Amino acid sequence: MARGRPHPPDRTGALAEAAGETPHYHGHRERLRARFAQGDTLPDYEFLELVLFRSIPRRDVKPIAKALIQRFGSFAEVITAPAELLMETDGIGPAVVADLKILEAAGRRLARGAVAERPLLSSWSAVIDYCRAAMAFAPREEFRILFLDKRNRLIADEVQGRGTVDHTPVYPREVVRRALELSATALILVHNHPSGDPTPSQADIRMTRDIVGAAEPLGIVVHDHIVVGREGHASFKGLKLI
């Protein structure tokens, strides 16, 4: 398969347009747009088609959308997939990848907007949504920290480390040092499991307790440690692990 190669328009559609005819996929596009406007719940591949309509204006995009969903699994996994993997799909070039990555960034901004400037503990579902949007589909483990002030409002959201598919090194002293630099009085720890299963490992549990032990004498509270994955999320507080 070509990697990042520009792709010509669908030849059948181009011939139809040259003959003054309407390509067959134009009617499909209008019907799909109408269903979306009416509030129909579209399957992931059709929702992806809506996005690709603008990115690929002169080609039947249904086969491309279906191929992407088949390979990556879901709409969310498509838009968060690495660019080089996306471009291994026939029909996907740099311009299409750029459009998909704009969508990914927009989703993160929307999720972040729901948790900014408000006490996070009073909008817990928004916190979970934000964490999942930010990292649930990342191909490698990431460890991030939400630093909170005394009113539990977000001061900063920082990725402290990126690792392999199943491990990220975390240093409790560095976590506490950064909290002191930001004058944070509380933390929410977050990391992802690229395997999809958010069940905490024994290493996760040990690391979390080490951070709690380092933070507590300095008056810094660890509210929770959230593990996110494609299959959902797990809360250390909910599991009574802290």
TrEMBL record:
Pfam families: RadC (PF04002). InterPro entries: MPN, RadC_JAB, RuvA_2-like, UPF0758, UPF0758_CS. SUPFAM superfamilies: JAB1/MPN domain (SSF102712), RuvA domain 2-like (SSF47781). GO terms for molecular function: metal ion binding; metallopeptidase activity. Keywords: Hydrolase, Metal-binding, Metalloprotease, Protease, Zinc. Residues 120-242 form the MPN domain. Belongs to the UPF0758 family. This is DNA repair protein RadC. It comes from Methylobacterium nodulans (strain LMG 21967 / CNCM I-2342 / ORS 2060). The lineage of its organism: Bacteria, Pseudomonadati, Pseudomonadota, Alphaproteobacteria, Hyphomicrobiales.
